[in-house]
Design goal:
CATH topology: Alpha-Beta Plaits
Radius of gyration: 16 Å
Strand content: 15-25%
Strand order of the largest sheet: 2-3-1-4
Length: 171
């Protein structure tokens, strides 16, 4: 059993649509627990570290993609959270769906709440309103969590769900 932590960010489109709680409930119902949370409005330097220094966005997708994403992300506050659970990184990625909302399957967060395609966003010069950021892998999760949260902002506690899914670990 591998207990992991992963970063999620409810993007400005989620906050502005008033669906943060509805989406968060899906993670909690899946057995993930919140171990850190805060609402913030990061500056350009913070996003540069997140999207380029950690995520290599400019290197992979170009300066234009970064600039559009930065403008979109600075359109309002975001809610950053650390979720913890059994294989949390892959579970969250599965629940969220693919990065492009149009390609996300029904039943995923992006498939149920978003629909824009990359082509449309590129043609209109828009950031893709895909609701949520989720760490891509364990290395990214570790770096992103350290970037968004200090150690004293991350909490440890037991949930009722853990009592039933992780009881062998505690013996």
């Amino acid at each position: 059993m591998k207990i992991e932590q992963t970063l999620i960010i409810f993007k400005p489109d989620t906050i502005q649509r008033g669906i943060t709680g509805e989406i968060l409930t899906r993670f909690e119902k899946a057995g993930l627990k919140i171990v850190a949370t805060k609402m913030v409005a990061p500056n350009e330097k913070h996003y540069h570290k997140h999207y380029e220094d950690i995520g290599n966005m400019i290197s992979r997708r170009g300066q234009k993609a970064f600039d559009v994403t930065l403008k979109f992300m600075r359109d309002g506050p975001v809610v950053a959270m650390v979720l913890e659970g059994i294989e949390a990184i892959s579970l969250v990625r599965k629940l969220v769906g693919t990065t492009e909302p149009k390609a996300s399957l029904p039943g995923t967060i992006r498939g149920d709440y978003a629909h824009m395609s990359f082509v449309h966003a590129d043609e209109e010069g828009l950031g893709v309103p895909n609701l949520i950021h989720a760490s891509g892998d364990a290395d990214d999760a570790e770096k992103e969590i350290a970037h968004w949260f200090s150690g004293n902002e991350i909490f440890s506690y037991e949930t009722a769900h853990e009592k039933f899914t992780q009881s062998k670990r505690k013996k």
